Amino acid sequence: MLDQLTRELKATMGIYESDEEQVYGLLAEFSDPGALLHAAEAVRENGYSHFDTHSPFPIHGMDRAMGLGNSKVGFFSFGGAVTGLAVGYLLQWWTSAVDYPINISGKPFFAIEPSVPIMFELTILFGALGAVAGMLALNGLPRPYNPLFYSERFERVTDDAFFLHIAASDANFDETDTANLLRKAGALNVELVQDDGSAETAPASSL
Fold this sequence. Notes:
By secondary structure, the protein is α+β, with helices and mostly antiparallel strands. It contains six helices and five strands, in the order H-E-H-E-H-H-H-E-H-E-E. It has helices at 2-11, 33-45, 62-66, 73-99, 112-138, 175-184; strands spanning 23-30, 51-54, 162-167, 189-194, 198-201. Helix 4 packs antiparallel against helix 5. It starts with a helix and ends in a 6-residue tail after the last strand.
């Protein structure tokens, strides 16, 4: 049970782990951004959820095609901002009124008004740090290793190629049926990627 929950949590970060130790998934190459967009829609409509798209640049409408919801980074940013506000408030209250109070012209040891600049700055700082930390966590980064790197075709993904990867961890994954779906969606090439350092042409249906 714990292993399954861990796999599902990692899947939300784009880190897919299947029960099969060797098979990582199927990697399909498409001719252009439009073909990749329509393929993502087809894959989602067929019930797949553990898949991702890779392209040299952002493709408008891809989030909707993949069925992705709103980004959760905002929650991390908000949490960081609230933490920064609290830290700024407590820091100044503790240093001025508790740890080292100094009576200056009868002024109060601590007041909100002169503390606003520091509270504001720490709110912004911690909010920004929260956004960056949230983005890295939700994307499963840093991640120097990915089995997709075994595919020679995938080396072109930062240049002029467009790919869609369906993970073997998906409940609907089947080497033959899933490969046929990708070919039907217009894939130029479909590779079976294994987590043992190999990538080979995926099997095709005999029908």
